[in-house]
Design a protein that fits this description.
The chain has 141 residues and is α+β, with helices and mostly antiparallel strands. It has a domain of 90 residues: Alpha-Beta Plaits (2-Layer Sandwich), CATH 3.30.70. 43% of the residues lie in helices and 14% in strands. It has a three-stranded antiparallel β-sheet with strand order 1-3-2, covered by helices on one side.
Amino acid sequence: MRRPLETSGKPEPIRKERVIRFAEFPPGQVAEAADFLAGLADLEIAPNAGERSIAVIYDLHEHSQEELESALESMGFHLACSLLDKLIRALIYYSEETEIHNLDAPRRLLKKSQNEAYTRAWERHPHGDHDDTPPEWREYK
């Protein structure tokens, strides 16, 4: 999944180093998965068959771990499914999704927007020497 680039040129890469872990069965799937991932552009891989994992390095503008793991699962590979693996995977998915969302968000000057908010609130708020008490009651002695 390609991400939109900024109009001022190519943005600075956001390099992510992750480990994709595989289930014990079926055996030999790490080598096959490495071959599949090697065919993807802008992706560095380092398979580790002893630990049933593949280390991947990618730019967040080009790929995300959720995208890579979804592609592997759709090809029939079985990822590790222990509770710890699922928690780590969910945390990484969430953080990358948030980071991608923040990359697409327009930049706003916080100080300017804060000043505008305070100005609008001040204009709507009755200020100065404002008193709802009728004048005859204020001057009553």
